[in-house]
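Entry:
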Amino acid sequence: MLTSRQYKQNTIEAIKHLSKLSESERLEAEQKKNILLLIENLIEREEATFKMIIDCLYDLGSVNLINKKFSICPFNQMMKLIAKFSRPGFRFIAFYWVHKNTPKLITNWLLKKVNRLR
């Protein structure tokens, strides 16, 4: 079988392009892994800060929700008391969720922002 010189040259260029593409994909995956590890480390080091943020968000959200749903004063105050007592349980569940999901969410968000620049 005879092949033209142009065909061989195109094949070689395609192979070089594929190897560069796989190398860039490998580099991107490695950098994504590094970012993920750094964010996980940040969450572990700043655990108290994240718990304070969760507490603030819980306080604001629960008060706003109770004021919106319960306009009658005795029910409103009773629900605020219940919300105050349920904060530790919510904090535990919320921090578990943050610790498990936030690094992936932040990493993916950052990579989307960087990929937009391409």
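The chain has a mean pLDDT of 85.
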